[in-house]
Amino acid sequence: NYTAGELMVRCNPNITYNITPGDGQNFGQAADRPDMRAAMGTTWSAYLPYTLHRMSSAIPWGAGADAITDYGNGEWQYHTVGIKAYDMFKVPGDTYTDQVVLTLDYF
């Protein structure tokens, strides 16, 4: 299952910026996928593994060299980010949440 949304950034013209995601609060908690972010169920405390994606890329979005890099133009700029959940059949029906800190560096 894949769902997409948008990040909005507004920087001064000609300013380079990078957006990088953190690991989230539950990274590695899904037993079958210890190398992924995980959302925790609110009722059952089960973990649903997921990956973030830049644009419509099939490659997961990680930290460091995998930053979204762009140049400011003084207007709002939109960057598509997707999420793909895995192993949904292995966890009970619930509401699953996680918090991922995004870092915006500009220079």
Can you describe this structure?
This protein is mainly beta and 107 residues long. It is built from no helices and 8 strands. The strands form 2 sheets. It has a 5-stranded antiparallel sheet with strand order 1-6-4-3-7, with no helix packed on it. Strands 5-2-8 form a 3-stranded antiparallel sheet, with no helix packed on it.
Which secondary-structure class do the elements indicate? mainly beta
Number of strands: 8
Mean pLDDT score? 91
Uncertain segments are none
Distance between the termini: 36 Å
Using the CA coordinates, give the radius of gyration: 15 Å
- The helix content is under 10%
Tally of individual helices: 0
Biggest β-sheet description: 5 strands, antiparallel
> Element order, helices and strands?
EEEEEEEE
Proportion of beta-strand residues: over 45%
Order of strands across the biggest sheet?
Answer: 1-6-4-3-7
Q: What's the shape? A: elongated
Give a concise summary.
It is built from no helices and eight strands. It has strands at residues 2-10, 16-21, 37-41, 47-54, 68-71, 76-85, 96-97, 102-106.
Feature tags:
mainly beta; elongated; five-stranded antiparallel β-sheet; 8 strands; three-stranded antiparallel β-sheet; 107 residues; single chain
